[in-house]
Amino acid sequence: MPVTLHEVTADYPGGHRALHGISATLPAGAVTALTGPNGSGKSTLLNLLAGTLSPTTGTISYERPCRPAYVVQRSAVPDALPLTVRETVTMGRWAERGHWRRLTRADRAVVDDCLARLGIEDLSHRQLGDLSGGQRQRTLIAQALAQRSPLLLLDEPTAALDAAAQRQITDTLTRIATEDGTTVVHATHHPAEAAAADHTLTLAAGHLC
Ligand code: ADP
Ligand code: MG
Predict the structure, then answer these.
(1) Ligand 2 centroid vs 192 CA: distance in angstroms?
(2) All structural domains of the chain
(3) 155: left (phi over 0), alpha (psi -120 to 50) or beta
(4) Which residues place a Cβ less than 5 A from the ion ligand 2?
(5) Whose CA is nearest to atom 5 of ligand 1?
(6) Which of 16, 58, 70 is nearest to 206 (CA)?
(7) I need a labelling partner for 16 at 20 to 30 A (CA). Which of 40, 62, 84, 148 fits?
C-alpha cells in the first residue's frame, strides 16, 4: 500500500518546527530508508506515518485505512519486561483481537509463522531480557510482523547491533517488502543499509534533500 505525503510540516509544543514541506511517495512492496543526522527529523516522520503525531499542515494519504506496525527505537522499550519471546510476538495480535479475547488457531499460526520468518522459533520460551541485542530486535520485528499491517515502520532497528545482525535484519526487511508487498520504512544511520534499500529519503534539519 503506497503512502503519499504532500507538503507536510510538523511542529512540537513550543513551536519548534521539526519538518518543513515534506512531499514524497513511499512505494508498496519496497523498502524506503530514512537517513540524515541526529535531530534531522527521522523519528518525527515515522511518528507522523504511525499516526502518533499529526501534521501541522499538509496531508498524508494512505490508499486505505490501516493501522501501521511500528518498531520504536530500542531505548524506548524496557529491557526487563517479564515476557517470553512467544508472548512478545503474540502481543502483535492484540491490536486486532483485543487482549481480553482468546486467540484463535489462526492467530497462533500467524505467531508461529512470524517466529519462523525471523528465525527465532528456538528462542520462543526465552525471556526477552536474556536475549542478545540482535535476537531481541528480531523478536520486536516479529511482533510488528504479527500485526499483518501493510505498513511497517522501524526506528533505527539495527542501531547498536554488530554487522552480522545488521545484515540479517536488512535482509529480513527486504523479504518482508518483496514477499508480502508491505511498505517498509526504516530510519538508519548505516550507509550500507541505506544502500540496500529500494529508496532513500535524506533529511537535513527537517528538510528533504
Ligand atoms: P532524528 O530522529 O532524525 O534524530 P527527531 O525527529 O527525533 O530527529 O527530531 C527532529 C527535531 O525535533 C529535533 O530538533 C528535536 O530536537 C526535535 N524534537 C524531537 N522530539 C521532540 C519533542 N518531543 N519535543 C520537542 N522537540 C522535539
Ligand atoms: Mg530518531
Answers:
(1) 18
(2) 1-68+150-209 (3.40.50.300), 85-148 (no CATH)
(3) beta
(4) 42-43
(5) 41
(6) 16
(7) 62
